[in-house]
Amino acid sequence: MIDPEGVEEWYETVLTACPDWSRLRDDRIMNRVDRRQYAAAIEEARIGLAKTPQNLLAMRRLATLLLEHGSSPVEWEESVQITLETLEIEPNNPNAWRALALAQVKSGDVSGAEKSLRQSVALSPNDYRIRTELALLLNTAEKRGEAEVEMSEAIRLWDEQGKQGNQPMLPEPMMGPTFP
Questions:
Q1: What mean pLDDT value characterizes the chain?
Q2: Taking a C-beta distance cutoff of 8 angstroms, is the pair 119, 101 a contact?
Q3: 75-80 CB contacts, 8 Å cutoff, 24+ apart
Q4: Residue 101 φ/ψ, nearest 5 degrees
Q5: Fewer beta carbons under 10 A from the terminal one: N or C of the chain?
């Protein structure tokens, strides 16, 4: 059996000798996540981003960790800010807009999340997942008519993709079954 403390010591030794080895740092982050050491993973991701600013992978990793495992509204807002920075680099990435929407929802900005999801739909109109997420958000915001239109389109797209042999499992939106 592998000794987690021994692994952590090894990571520390190698990253001290090679602090710019981003792939190893990513492995360490994921190792900490696997062991549910979320605060340590977030701190390591912050170090990684500081070593490689403007690195989209490092930015996304930290934003995701803050969103999924951050313990305060300050960390969720940090996730929003990092995601906005990724959009400055990659403004036409529909997944970045989806990630921004999720961070905005968690930060309490439902109106901003709706705008972000609409931008994601504009960039990727045939993605049933984005349409499903938008429908759920609109339903939560009590915009039932718009929610029904988006959900109908999501179902149509999902069914159409199935007829082409591309249908994945049942839709599982990134934001879960309901919004807070």
A1: 86
A2: no
A3: 75/42, 76/103, 76/106, 76/107, 77/107, 79/103, 79/106, 79/107, 80/104, 80/107, 80/109
A4: -60, -45
A5: N
